[in-house]
């Protein structure tokens, strides 16, 4: 089942990931949440955030930049 969760996270759009992260933050802000559960949510959130950063880095590398001569080049 873990492999399925990983696949779902990899296929998740950035917008979906941000919504999920927002839900995690709300759960962490809930009073009375057990410490162990808060650590697990935090860990999952950090892993998801890393995947988001990786996706953003990939997109940035694919973006094209117009150079001085008017040609497109990747950066």
UniProtKB/TrEMBL annotation:
Q: Where's it found, cell-wise? A: Cytoplasm
**One of the GO biological process terms:** DNA catabolic process
Q: Does the keyword Hydrolase apply?
A: yes
Q: Which UniProt keywords apply?
A: Cytoplasm, Exonuclease, Hydrolase, Nuclease
Q: Name one GO molecular function term.
A: exodeoxyribonuclease VII activity
Q: From which domain of life does this come?
A: Bacteria
Q: Which Gene3D superfamilies match?
A: Exonuclease VII, small subunit (1.10.287.1040)
Reaction(s) this enzyme catalyzes, per UniProt = Exonucleolytic cleavage in either 5'- to 3'- or 3'- to 5'-direction to yield nucleoside 5'-phosphates
What's one GO-annotated cellular component?
cytosol
Q: Which SUPFAM superfamilies does the UniProt record give? A: XseB-like
Enzyme kind, highest EC tier? hydrolase
Which EC numbers does the record give? 3.1.11.6
Name the protein family.
Belongs to the XseB family.
**Function as written in the Swiss-Prot or TrEMBL entry:** Bidirectionally degrades single-stranded DNA into large acid-insoluble oligonucleotides, which are then degraded further into small acid-soluble oligonucleotides.
Give the multimer and partner information: Heterooligomer composed of large and small subunits.
Q: What is this protein called?
A: Exodeoxyribonuclease 7 small subunit
Organism of derivation: Wansuia hejianensis
